[in-house]
Amino acid sequence: MRLGLIGTGAIAARHLNCIGEASDEIEVVAHLSRTFTRSELASQRFGGKPYGEIDKFISEGRPDAVIVTVPPSQHGMIEHTLIDAGIPFLVEKPIGLALDVPETIAHSIAAKGLVTAVGYNWRSIDCLNLVKQQLALTPPRMMIGHFHIGTPQAPWWRFEAESGGQMVEQACHLIDLARHLVGDGEFLAATGHKGPLPGFDDGDIASASAALFRFGDRPCVVTATCVLPHGSGAELHLICDGCEMKISLQGLSIIRNGVEERITCRTNSYAAQNKRFFDAVQSDSPADVFCTYADALVTHRLSIAAGTAIRDRKQQYENFE
Using H for helix, E for strand and C for coil, what is the string for the chain? Predict the structure, then answer.
């Protein structure tokens, strides 16, 4: 399979570094970036040819499938061009900064019947089967998620107009995993605090935020902050009948009767996700991916609702001051 990459940042490299784990039948043939020199650097490191225009990327690179890793503000034209060309793609979350662009893309994908996937890689964690088995025995009562890290270096990440803020850009993983495990839900409330971003003089996103959701009749709180360079990272904590479970990309912790059992993830979640996508492309089976675009759109609506509330509340406080 001939694979093309659109985007040449850290997430693109994360995908490319585990291509061999996903499949030994993948040939990286093309890289596309807004900055041609970045495409050149990616081609030197991972193979394939560099491109600066999507039309040549498609016509000369001739990819059978594409992985899209661009900032949230760049979604739209890229996806529609790939859809028109009939090229399957896996696109990283979040799938946009609002709802209008993703809604249109979802409609075009459905009309085309194209294999597409969205990079909610937490769904591919290998120990999730154990989580689902435990949930069947001890039903969930509440979920608590946190995404506590330092501020990423990418300049676009620090600005609402380009990233959507941390709840939309990162903590959406936790919102999606809660949905995936417990079922669809609704957004209830959110707020945030702006404050300075450690190590940077610019940026307008909330440096700390919290959102409240309800999945069925189960409450879920998700907190996010980017002021902790040595923070605890990301985790979804499920409170169940007589049991607690803590899920991260590193593994699973199950606490029963005061005794903790730790299970380490054995596979790379990106590799597992990509393998499922590549297999779906080869068999032309749109439903076989871990997360379809239509399913990701449901999560996106919740994330955008939370992000909008955080931004609006932050503006209210700024105006008050």
Answer: CEEEEECCCHHHHHHHHCHHHHCCCCEEEEEECCCHHHHHHHHHHHCCEEECCHHHHHHCCCCCEEEECCCHHHCCHHHHHHHHHCCCEEECCCCCCCCHHHHHHHHHHHHHCCCEEECCHHHHCCCHHHHHHHHHHCCEEEEEEEEECCCCCCHHHHCHHHHCCHHHHCCHHHHHHHHHHHCCEEEEEEEEECCCCCCCCCCCCCCEEEEEEEECCEEEEEEEECCCCCCCEEEEEEEECCEEEEECCCEEEEEECCEEEEEECCCCHHHHHHHHHHHHHHHCCHHHCCCCHHHHHHHHHHHHHHHHHHHHHHHHHHHHC
